[in-house]
Task: structure prediction
Amino acid sequence: MSVVQRVDDALKEGLGRGPLSGSRIPVTFDTPGSEWSARRSGPCVNVFLHSVEEDAQRTQTGRIGVVDEEGTVIGYRRPPRYFVLSYLVTVWAQTVADEHRLLGRLLEWCAVTEELALPQDGFGPQPDRLGLRVRATGGESSETPASRVWSSLGTPARPGLDLVVTVPLEREPIGTGPAPVHGLALRTGRLPARPEDDPAPRSARPRRRVEEVR
Result:
């Protein structure tokens, strides 16, 4: 399962436990084009992923030490890379009043929810939390990412939340060294003597000549 699929699952689970708790309103990730809206039946919350970008300001260079349970550095890894997934969250219901009521509940949930747990799939290093926020306005410009979505889809604009999800992607360790030494064992033993190392018999040793000097 890709990281985008896991983010989708985390959002669907978070919305189901939060503002949609106790209701049967489904969460869809379809493209909200004119054909989709014409086929839609019943209320729903649409979460449309419209852009994926890297947050270069948060991505760092260099290396980070990888330590074991005893605090020993056993290798190094590069810092994670941060990616921003932008979702346009809209409500589709029978009346405008119902849409605004549910949209308000979604806004309140987003205002108090800064993180979501990301489900793990067991393959490689994975992030376990992701950041969650509503995109801030970019000054006085009338064009926003959400407005560009509606114009590109050819669909009349409708109110929605531009939800920004930040995902850190860990990278594999590099330069992993050998396992650290946890102890040292010293053993002694007797080595067999070599024939050339055997001392010569005392009788076979040459005698020194000693003279008395007067």
